[in-house]
Amino acid sequence: MPLNRPLQNKDMSQMIAIKLVQRFALGGLALLATSGCQSAMHDNLAQGAPAYEAIATQAGSAEQLDLIRIGDKLSIKVFGEPDLTATEYVVDDSGAVQVPLLGPVEAKGKSPLQLRNDLTSLLGQRYLRNPQVAVAIVARTTATFVIEGQVTEPGIYEAGRDLTLIGAVARARSTTTVAKLNQVLVFRTINGQRAGGRFDINAIRAGKAPDPQILAGDTIVVGYSATRGAYRDFLQTIPLFNLFTTF
After folding, report:
1. What is the CATH number of the domain that holds 96?
2. How far apart are CA 47 and CA 185, in angstroms?
């Protein structure tokens, strides 16, 4: 039998199979290395019980939704002072409202009661004796959160009262098949400081960990599993080459 006989279909399939396994093995190692680097970038984020403490706020979720936000329209009434009274004070991009006599007054992140107290104090110190002030939110911008990473439909979603991490993921049509479920990051701004924590969705679903509340302005990032990704790519490629032949 000649040594240089043409390759048969079965021989060709075996060679392709070997090459594919080698390629995906090398690719998997590279992905794992990349994943390790990405994971290291978030190693400084708290996890477990400290993660819940890291994103804790003094106010509950319902109170957070009632705080003044950029774009809100406010009614400010100063009794006996029609020049200061208006129903269309708009919170500008800096988070302030422009009040006659006072100029810009910080409003973002405050409750109407807190803003009323601030205005009462400022007006009393400079211009009026015992001012009577009332503040109300008359029109609201939509409270939203962002979810990205390994979810089916990443994007910006409306934040409602009592929204939790599991509910937020459900709004994004759940996680993908290559999501790293113990690397779900939640970022939140608290008193002007960026805070974040790592959470395990599997533990939450199993009832082994609390389901953290998600507030307006939060950003959720669902991590990527390089191992699952390489395996998925491998399974998707095999049928294209008809690796399994009959004998």
Report:
1. 3.30.1950.10
2. 9
